[in-house]
Please model this.
Amino acid sequence: MIKRTQTYASVGRPREFELDDAVRKAMDVFWDRGYHDASLPDLLKGMELSRGSFYKAFVDKRGVYLRALDLYIEDAIRSVGETLHSHSSPKGAIREAFLQHVDYSSGTLGLRGCFVVFAALEMLPDDKEVSARISRLFRRLQDLYAAAIIRAQSLGEIDPGLDDRTLARFLVCQIQGMRVLGKAGADRDETRAMVDLVLKALD
Model:
């Protein structure tokens, strides 16, 4: 995982800046323009960095793109993990995670879409490094949901006869579908109503 704060020293004048802040600004540029259409001037302006600082920290456009993708993935894993452990009821925690994704899939956030989905559409199947990162994200999300399902099964909240891995994959697929529909301007109330239907599959 990328460290939160890093200081870079070089021959000559030292330079210091918050790496994650710069990467998040680059993420916004890639999110708005895509990898191929984001030019170096776009990135320098968006990241508020000089050309020299950019090259010393990230080497090239691909380097900062992969860092942005890594940071987005770690943020997503951390957020879902925290939500799935935030409720005394594991099934209730799963519901809460879905309700959060209703927010991400509605309004302005919904129209912006998911950075990972954009990366998949633009870069896959040819880019093996990006493909490996996205595949790893989905595996880790499935692991988190499978663990929550197992906890819920132990408490009698979910049918113990159901396969936790299959259910976890189902949940992740539903979430990604919500994000895609959000990009198309899906109605918030309709998306929220779908959550109750999804949770019935866990009974």
Notes: The longest helix spans residues 128-154.
